[in-house]
Amino acid sequence: MFELIVERGVTKTWKDFISQSPKFSIALDGYVSGPTNHQIDGRRLNLNHHEGVNRLITKSTSAQTYFFIKQGMIKNFYNSENQKISVYVNDPDQDVCLSLWLLFNYKRIMKNDEPLIERLVEIEDKLDITCGTYPFDSNSKIMKEMAWIFEPYIKSRHTNQLYTMTNDEIKILIKKVLIRIDKYSQGKCEMVNLDTRYKLIQSDKDIHMIEEIGPYAKMEFIKNGINKAILVKKRNENYTYTLLKTDPFVLFPLEKIYAELNKIEKKQTGNFQSLSKNVKRKKNEKWGGSDLIGGSPRISGSAIKPDKLISLVSKITKNYLN
What we know:
With about 325 residues, this protein is an alpha/beta fold. The protein has eleven helices and eleven strands. The protein folds into two domains: about 180 residues, no CATH class; about 120 residues, Diaminopimelate Epimerase, Chain A, domain 1, CATH 3.10.310.
């Protein structure tokens, strides 16, 4: 019934999605940029919680998917059980994998009470809408179970393998995670410890640039009082940056920062060349995200050096606050 289409790093507008996808299509978690939306006539649906929303009060994509199924809306989405539904994703993160598991098991979710799955959706929702900063105990059983469930994705992202994967390789990764969710739902979940180590690279007043040594570093540095962070990861000749803050009242204007950095990289002059010679940027690849978290283009990254970036971000923030 469901056909999974993986297009790594692709982002479309709602208008383009309507014109380029077949009827009975679902876009998940940022494949279509913009708030959750639906088209009744063509049976198209975008489930998202990133751009154009208040992140803290907008349910994660997996929580939206769960609601979509549990309320029976999926029954009115297709016209027969033989209808093919195309599901589009551009990344295999936790929210996407859980959303896919829910869709692929929608009959089970509609028919039965699934306390383990409902708990998983609840925890993932809290983690995702807070950008991984919700104050769960990193030594708790549920966090160790989630670390095991999503370990294939976490490892691929933390070791940079994710950024060179083909679409078919991403499908294999997703399948590995779905198998682990199956085992969790059967009470056969394993556990792994969370690595929360991090290294403070440099600071500009209260803006801190951090290297995540462990994939769960956010839980630790947030606990230590850091609420404006630039996460940096070296990728060959370029860098991957993630900008985040803990809540809307933290004076760190991320959406303004994205816009200014896009202008800077578009100039392609001197030290601000947007890309190295060996990396090509796809259409629509740019700095972006939500009001709480975002960053550099997913595939190509950024050519701006870390010391220059923190200076630029600090300057943009200062000008905005003044």
